[in-house]
Design goal:
By secondary structure, the protein is α+β, with helices and mostly antiparallel strands. It contains eight helices and five strands.
Length: 237
């Protein structure tokens, strides 16, 4: 029996162990324990086998996402019962006939069922719309530092408006543990980050956040029916 099959059997036994029939529950728990001992598995391993991940681009070109983007990542992850890892990948590309290193930064959502995939899709749609709105808002700003600062302030206002579309979803302790175990199995040396400070030497304009909030209020997120059912995400313009 391979590990994947063993995990599936252990998970099935653990579910049966929740049976209201005490004899059936006890037998299922004994079988689960036997399988775990035989294959060197834990309950966390079994529950983590139900956790999936999905990646979404950030367009940060290898750098840590801006604080505003981390804010968006956090509210989307919380709204769809996920946890995240900011994942940077380097690859070698040819430029003018010479090899050069190129990095990309993605956000990797971890969740059960279709949660991760939906979260990645929702984040991608919102990020693209934010970039369009922010670009229009700062189109006439010439100085780079001011452009970045005003864009960041606009983004914070925009995301604050979107936040109301994502009520926090409370995760059960076993789901939290399963997601944490799934992350540990794929990533090591994880460090916490609040995001990259943008435009700290620039000057913002009065009303940048208000303008962002007004534009962000046009975004609409409509959860579908069912705990893990499909969600529909659209923008009212």
């Amino acid at each position: 029996m391979d590990r994947k099959t063993a995990l599936r059997k252990v998970l099935s036994c653990l579910r049966l162990a929740a049976s209201s029939n005490p004899n059936e529950a006890a037998a299922a728990l004994r079988q689960a324990r036997a399988l775990m001992d035989e294959h060197g598995l834990t309950e966390a391993d079994a529950y983590a086998s139900e956790i999936h991940h999905a990646d979404a681009p950030t367009r940060c070109r290898g750098s840590v996402p801006a604080r505003s983007l981390m804010f968006l990542i956090d509210i989307v992850a919380t709204g769809f019962r996920c946890d995240v890892v900011i994942h940077r990948v380097s690859r070698t590309v040819m430029r003018n006939g010479w090899p050069a290193s190129e990095s990309t930064t993605t956000v990797r959502f971890f969740g059960a069922g279709s949660d991760a995939e939906i979260a990645a899709y929702a984040f991608s749609v919102l990020r693209r719309q934010l970039e369009v709105d922010k670009g229009k808002h700062t189109a006439r700003v010439r100085k780079r530092a001011n452009k970045e600062r005003r864009g960041e302030e606009f983004a914070i206002g925009w995301i604050s408006a979107v936040r109301h579309q994502f009520p926090g979803a409370e995760l059960a302790d076993d789901r939290k543990a399963a997601i944490a175990r799934a992350i540990e199995s794929k990533h090591t040396n994880i460090v916490q980050t609040a995001g990259r400070e943008v435009g700290k030497h620039g000057r913002a304009s009065y009303g940048d956040r208000d303008a962002g909030y007004i534009k962000g209020s046009a975004a609409r997120v409509h959860p579908g029916v069912g705990d893990n059912g499909p969600r529909k995400l659209e923008h009212a313009r």
